[in-house]
Design goal:
This protein has 6 helices and 11 strands. About 20% of the residues lie in helices and about 25% in strands.
């Protein structure tokens, strides 16, 4: 059985994203953030986007470019404190921000990828994070219901790939990427190195190609995108 070749260009992959899409974006600060896919999304100009990302990056890089370009409607994130532009956009009402504890964000994404509807936790009870959310009692304990997260598209960054979309990550650049690759029906991976089928040891694959729809190799990585080739 021959496996499909999922390789494409950055431009063609991002062109599949419609206005109004909910997009998961991998990364923890710089490591694992798909900067080139983000820059292409800025260039193409899709609007009214809902972003799910651990952080808002820093001013002048990553998803800050989308916020500054007026393309973001809602951001679901753990913190935006390193990005003055994002804070200003929140305070002025230009974007809506839903804050979520970091571990809960990861678990909500994992639950979405596993086909679950929600998780329950005692984290956030009695705080602003619980406002408007359902509280249930289980085994004599009050628990907060946190809905699972899924997206229309996941944009992820990987270290190596083959044409089928099997992926490996570089150390901590793994972070949210494998979880997000399971929580969206369309997954676009930018990769630093693309090899032929069989070039990756099965034991090294961290995201199987079954979860990946489009693979785009980064032909040139520059500081402009916040990435420097090792």
């Amino acid at each position: 059985m021959s496996l499909p070749d999922k390789t494409t260009t950055i431009e063609a992959a991002v062109a599949r994203i419609p206005d109004g899409a909910t997009i998961m974006i991998g990364g923890f600060g710089v490591p694992g953030t798909p900067f080139t896919l983000i820059r292409e999304l800025v260039r193409q100009g899709q609007k009214d986007l809902t972003l799910i990302k651990n952080d808002a990056n820093e001013t002048g890089m990553g998803i800050d470019l989308l916020i500054a370009n007026g393309q973001v409607k809602t951001l679901i994130s753990t913190h935006i404190g390193l990005n003055a532009n994002a804070i200003s956009a929140l305070n002025s009402g230009r974007i809506r921000v839903e804050f979520c504890a970091q571990g809960i964000l990861a678990e909500r994404i994992r639950a979405g990828g596993a086909g679950l509807s929600a998780i329950v936790t005692d984290i956030g009870l009695g705080t602003e994070l619980a406002e408007g959310k359902q509280v249930v009692e289980m085994n004599g304990k009050r628990l907060l219901v946190e809905s699972a997260l899924r997206a229309d598209v996941a944009l992820i960054h990987a270290d190596r790939a083959d044409p089928f979309g099997n992926l490996t990550y570089a150390a901590t650049a793994r972070n949210f990427n494998p979880l997000m690759a399971m929580a969206a029906p369309m997954v676009i991976a930018e990769v630093e190195s693309l090899g032929p089928l069989g070039s990756l040891s099965p034991e090294a694959v961290e995201t199987p190609g079954a979860f990946v729809d489009h693979v785009a190799e980064l032909v040139e990585l520059t500081e402009e995108y916040g990435i420097v080739r090792r």
